[in-house]
Amino acid sequence: MKLAIAGVGNNISALIQGIAYYGMLDAEALPGVARPVLGGIAVTDIETVAVFDLAPNKVGKKLSDAMFAEPNNYPKLETPGPASDPEVTFGIADPTDRSQIDAVAQVLRDSGAEVFLYSLPTGLPELAAAYGRAAVDAGVAVVNCTPDPIAGLPALFAEAREKNIPMVGDDLQSHIGSSIVHGTVLSLLEERGITLTGSYQLNIGGNADFKNLREHGGNKEASKHRALRQKVGNTDSVTVIPSAGFVAHLHDRKIAHMSVEGRGWAGMPVRLEISLQVQDSSNAAGVIIDLIRIAAIAARRGEGGFPVAATQLLKSPQMLTEWHEQVPSGRAALSALAADHA
User: Could you tell me one molecular function GO term of this UniProt entry (predicted)?
Assistant: First the structure.
């Protein structure tokens, strides 16, 4: 499966190194992978054919070198370099410059990419829209792992669906992240009849994403609330702070603290304190690997718009108004793809 990428950050370093890591293993069951094969596409069947970035210390370098350039700080694994190692191309710097969008679209066409993965820093909605435009012009499926809208742009999404171009987004649900853990706990209290009186979620980390989110966290906060509403109907008493602090020595590690308070029988207090520590970019890559394969399968089948199999891997896509009704069918579709090894 041929993949094009915008943004050579920690998530991409984790993804590319992880693919190489699994290529070293001689096993059908891969640790940390729920679905080794989806629709006939194995985890190790990914070939990166085009890469875009704007950072001077990444542009012009091979992907294998650029993914370790600062400020990236995902651990360097003892794995061979990627089988396909394209040079990083200067991408879209001015989203109002149509010639830059056209240039990216042409690179996508020439590369033969089936899927375009958008992974630039959060807080650049104009760039996200411009890259989405380029991918649709090139006829390439889109996966957006950031909360800046691409699939959430109604006109662009409608055009993609009309042209039979899959569009997956916006913002992934981490492998085991604060949103899914927090939402599950809130759902448990609701199911057991505990009245929620207040809850908060604080996230800290030491990668560039956490540093960036201190100033550009609006879309991320909204996305996290949408993710929680997958589990519970009302999040008015829940506070979410996507980046409560940038702590440099944590590097790519993320620490999340969640507090939930409620009232049980006779108004007696109930309180839960939960701490979660993960390698932040591994948490993303473990889901990206499924999203890009789902998009590729949909593209090969000529199915445009949002692939329902991606439903439970995202933080409540903005274009799905009846989210809860979509989740069961999404699980069934994902299970069917995992069972299809033809």
Answer: inositol-3-phosphate synthase activity
